[in-house]
Request: fold
Amino acid sequence: MPKLDASLIAGLPPFEGLEKDELEQVLAPARSLRFEREKPIFEQEAEAHFFFVLLDGHVRVVRTTPEGQQVIVRYISEGEVFGIATALGRTAYPATAIAAVDCVVLAWPSALWPELSTRFPALGANTYRTVGSRLQEAHTRVIEMSTEQVEQRVAHALLRLVRQTGRKTGEGIEIDFPITRQDIAEMTGATLHTVSRLMSAWEGEGIVKSGRKRVTISDPHRLMLKAESREQR
Amino acid sequence: MPKLDASLIAGLPPFEGLEKDELEQVLAPARSLRFEREKPIFEQEAEAHFFFVLLDGHVRVVRTTPEGQQVIVRYISEGEVFGIATALGRTAYPATAIAAVDCVVLAWPSALWPELSTRFPALGANTYRTVGSRLQEAHTRVIEMSTEQVEQRVAHALLRLVRQTGRKTGEGIEIDFPITRQDIAEMTGATLHTVSRLMSAWEGEGIVKSGRKRVTISDPHRLMLKAESREQR
DNA sequence: CGAGAAATTGAAAAGATTCAACTCTCGTGG
DNA sequence: CCACGAGAGTTGAATCTTTTCAATTTCTCG
Reply:
């Protein structure tokens, strides 16, 4: 096993506030893993033997209902921790994580969490801060689903994706990984048909440009207007 | 200030695993407060100066959108921690907490969290376990809102309330605090009209019994059937 | 180049909301 | 102690958003 270098993780949010030698100590028990596009990194209900930091790529976190319906919980971007069930006192992963593109991750054995988070309090604090924002995000989503129409929800979802993973191109900001209408539907609680109709309409208005598994926002400002307008109920 | 007794909190989930003398140390910096029905305990956006444990009563946690729409995030029951923004690295409360009935709470200054959670690791672990289940719960709610119809969502919400706060009566299990159709609507992302129609129908079928601000489930089993049936999309 | 996945689009149907009017209940103050 | 008024709940009818069903087209990758 090649020794991992502290520069790999220096500057990533979870490790903010750690010294170089601390980074090395944190890194020592970690292993680096690669996952091909569409391969699962861990499965819902499986025992949470590891927790992860995403070094490169994008990960889709999906929860499946007993009836087999899927909902996309979130996308993980570079530098984020995920699979941290153990930090929240759970022994099993509550969702499945799938590499949306080819990915490189660091994995730590869950059993080390108590020791690591005590020895490096900043690591614990950073992680729990992340948990806090995810909890808020989840509530925000509940609120959106309660109070907004599909059009607003889809607009908000696209804007969030663009903010997290947008990549500038000549025609606007492109979402950095393959994403289907079905995926967007699973993020917003809509059907792929409705999403498709919306995107077609927006394409006509020159707000987005999209093709097979690709979405580019050409006019984020006007998309924001779509996201804000008509909040009632 | 009267000295608080360890027996007040012994056996409550957040303090599981602490010895009697540890309980006393934890309790020392806490103060006990009373809130009348419908009085706010803390307000959304306000600085999170305290975190709380509910000793008696029920608390409604509400988030308000910039447009003024309200959504009920959850109800807190006896023995639960709440207002723990500080444990998640936030300086402001993300929601408003309102006493649903007359309440007694313990309050600790947020500034003590780092010290308390380090000195009493069990306290930290218990709290983060709670956070973990709330995160899961929030995701469950997102999933319900994505995949279920209003009827299933309302049934699920009632069942959850009954499980958390149910009190056996002659006619079934009653929800232990005043709750309006509007409240149920704000928990499920429906309108009070739809909720009212559903409850009327269920009352006709002998599944629930309800009056002004009161709901009793007379036949939980048949309500479960309503909650489960017809999951599609 | 061919095949399967992804996307589009029309038409019909359904669920839930909106609008509106009305009733009931309970607490309060004269 | 009773009447009154506001908050809570009910219910019909019309409307609308979104889904469902179905058929077709487009894309891309092996």
Remarks:
- Residues 149-151, 190-191, 193-194, 197, 211-212 of chain A lie near DNA strand D (CB under 10 Å from a C1').
- The longest strand of chain A covers residues 50-56.
- The CA atoms of residues 150 and 168 of chain A lie 26 Å apart.
